[in-house]
Design the sequence.
């Protein structure tokens, strides 16, 4: 990979100022951070730079203030939680650019951490305004990008700033990029992708990209219904996107050309109403779905067959649950296949990378998120990466490599 990491910075950073683009956009409840996962993700980068004597300035957006200051969206709320997590000197800096901010930074001690005010208090942030980027960059000597979750946004603090400072990937960014590279960049073959979720329409580009890249494509969830229907099968009341049948056919054709095997469910769990453990629930062949029934999960036979596919593969990428996993017992296939993937990963025969909001929730529900090789929490950026798109926040630090 062609980006610099913290290893390329001088060993002694005493007196130097490092701007770190983090993602401190944590959920809050009654003024308190209700989940500090995002803060903790940046601790390796923050502590390493602080240990080297740098003044560490954290840049982040926080909520959606739409380009104007709003007290309830001030990063000042994050100072105390960050102090507790790092056990170091953490201070709030009233702006993310300008003379006032520079004065506040000048009196910080080496190794201290500054949380700059919400980047989105400036309209220029989301517009990637070059003036704002330049003004942010003027506060520091180096730029470290540590938030893969915002890498799909070309903003002043994710992209523009890298035009003015030597740029590096932070530890969290490095781990994420390495995992993604291992999964689709230069993976061990055979590679299997699992794509599920409600609709084909939200993941058409993902499917189109993956058929070119992987050896096996497992399609599950509501989106499988459209593929099944495109083969002339009646899927009853199931969620189905008629308009996308031609796209589904296009994916079958592309898969044939690319030597990618598509796996669709052949037995399914159906019910007449969408509720927990409905009386009408039954498992049937996908050709036998009644006109008043809907498909809510894959059946046990299909799930077992998919587990066998995973056993023949060396690399797995997964996005999207295989069924309506939030409602019992339609999480069965997702949980079973996730456990198979976790066991194979533990045995050392599979590299498993997963991402997506509901996917992460489903893996947690199965109790196996820890056992995957890597689970990305970067929602939008992860999906754009699965679509094979170039992420501006990654390109910005790549092009700095000389
Ligand atoms: P992610 O957030 O991981 O990218 P998606 O948002 O694309 O995943 O899809 C998750 C949603 O898909 C869940 O709410 C789940 O209930 C729904 N889903 C999966 N299978 C079905 C199905 N057969 N019928 C209806 N909804 C489904
Ligand atoms: Mg989702």
Sequence:
């Amino acid at each position: 990979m062609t980006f610099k990491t913290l290893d390329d910075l001088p060993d002694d950073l005493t007196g130097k100022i490092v701007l770190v683009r983090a993602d401190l956009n944590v959920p809050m409840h009654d003024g308190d951070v209700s989940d500090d996962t995002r803060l903790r993700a940046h601790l390796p980068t923050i502590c390493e730079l602080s240990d080297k004597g740098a003044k560490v300035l954290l840049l982040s957006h926080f909520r959606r203030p739409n380009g104007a200051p709003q007290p309830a969206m001030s990063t000042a709320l994050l100072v105390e939680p960050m102090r507790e997590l790092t056990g170091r000197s953490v201070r709030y800096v009233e702006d993310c650019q300008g003379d006032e901010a520079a004065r506040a930074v000048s009196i910080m001690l080496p190794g201290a951490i500054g949380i700059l005010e919400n980047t989105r208090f400036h309209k220029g942030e989301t517009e990637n305004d070059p003036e704002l980027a330049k003004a942010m960059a003027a506060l520091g000597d180096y730029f470290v990008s540590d938030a893969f979750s915002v890498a799909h946004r070309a903003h002043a603090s994710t992209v523009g700033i890298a035009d003015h400072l030597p740029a590096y990937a932070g530890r969290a960014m490095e781990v994420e990029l390495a995992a993604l590279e291992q999964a689709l960049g230069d993976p061990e073959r055979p590679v299997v992708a699992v794509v599920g979720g409600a609709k084909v329409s939200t993941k058409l580009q993902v499917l189109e990209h993956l058929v070119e890249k992987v050896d096996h494509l497992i399609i599950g969830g509501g989106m499988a219904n459209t593929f099944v229907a495109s083969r002339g099968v009646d899927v009853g009341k199931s969620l189905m996107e008629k308009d996308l049948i031609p796209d589904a056919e296009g994916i079958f054709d592309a898969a044939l050309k690319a030597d990618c095997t598509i796996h669709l469910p052949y037995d399914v769990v159906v019910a007449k109403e969408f509720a927990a453990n409905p009386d009408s629930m039954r498992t049937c062949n996908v050709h036998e779905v009644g006109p008043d029934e809907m498909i809510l999960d894959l059946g046990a036979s299909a799930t077992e067959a998919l587990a066998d596919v995973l056993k023949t593969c060396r690399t797995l990428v997964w996005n999207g649950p295989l069924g309506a996993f939030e409602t019992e017992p339609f999480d069965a296939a997702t949980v079973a296949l996730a456990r198979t993937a976790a066991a194979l990963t533990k045995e050392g025969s599979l590299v498993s990378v997963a991402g997506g909001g509901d996917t992460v929730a489903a893996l947690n529900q199965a109790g196996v998120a820890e056992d995957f090789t890597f689970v990305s929490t970067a929602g939008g950026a992860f999906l754009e990466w699965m679509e094979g798109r170039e992420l501006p926040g990654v390109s910005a630090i790549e092009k700095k490599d000389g």
Notes: The first strand starts at residue 17 and ends at 21. The chain has a mean pLDDT of 96.
